[in-house]
Amino acid sequence: MSSRQPATVAFSLEEFARHGGLSGPHKDGWGIAYLQERDAWLIKEAAAASSSSLVRFVEFQRFQSTLVISHIRQATRGRVCFENTQPYRRELAGRAHVFAHNGDLVDVQRCRELRLGRMRPMGTTDSEYAFCALLHSLEGLWMASTEVPKLDDRVEIVSSFARTIRSLGPANFIYWDGDALFAHGHRRRHRGAGGFRSPGLYTLCRTCSFEPSAVRIEGLSVMPTTGEQQVFLVASVPLTDEDWQPVDEGEIVVVSHGTSRTRAAALAQTSDAHRGGTASNKST
I need a surface site. Which of 78, 157, 188, 266 has the fewest CB within 10 A? Predict the structure, then answer.
């Protein structure tokens, strides 16, 4: 969620929790990141959301933020533990950078285009390895000035990164760089359909006045603190019966303060030659 003004975000998490171990297979951890100025407050746990007392704590606290990223994990790489639980948070150029990925990147460590530089994963997931590689590719741009780099330059690097990891497997991800939210759609497993297909992400933008019921969906309610509010939502599946827009395969949607700033067109897939093997997708 990205919003124009700080919003009270209440995760009843009943619907999210059902995905996290009851109706869904994603029982191996969950996490939520809340933007706080240049930093982000991260709450996560390597356990099923459906039976978590910490989830209930989050539910009743009603934290405020203009940006919230939530992830529920089904482990495909790396053991079930705290450091392998998403979202991931790292510092670069004095800002918190947050990343969440849905997919399985086969042989990610063998990909010559994904270099780590000084970045090192704390866990053993393909997702965190990819995040470290993304930060390494952005480091020179961010450290070249005390100002926020031009958006076009950041989009170019993120798009190149997305093109690379798409060749390794399903590569839906959400990335916050301290200024803008990047949502990259690819492929995912859909109920009732075999294999993996697009869309991997959907978006919805809502404008509302200051009313307690202004933005309320199953498992989540968003209430503005004052005045008119604009809320931009990104999710793996539509959360309501409204007109959610699919993100095209390979497309990147860039959002800031509840408003879409740009959409980067889908780029061609890279070949498998750079990683010395053929990927077999087995993500969720």
Answer: 157
* CATH number of residue 115's parent domain: 3.60.20.10
Answer whether residue 284 is part of any domain: no
How confident is the model over 222-260, as pLDDT tens digits? 665 556 788 899 988 887 778 899 999 999 999 999 999
Structure tokens at 206: 């809502």
Residues of the chain with pLDDT under 70: 9-26, 75, 191-194, 208-227, 266-284
Q: Which two tokens stand for residue 108?
A: 């990610």
112 in a domain, yes or no?
yes
Contact 33, 69 (CB under 8 A): yes
Residues paired with residue 3 on neighbouring β-strands, in sequence order? 231
Instruction: Dihedral sign for Cα 174, 185, 128, 132, please.
Output: negative
The total domain count for the chain is 1
Question: What residues form DSSP beta bridges with 101?
Answer: 173
Domain hosting 190: range is: 2-275
CB-based contact 144:194 (threshold 8 Å) = no
Rg of the chain on CA atoms, in Å: 18
User: What pTM does this model have?
Assistant: 0.85
The tens digit of pLDDT for each residue in 115-139 reads: 999 999 999 999 999 999 999 999 9
Q: Which of 249, 277, 281 is nearest to 265 (CA)?
A: 249
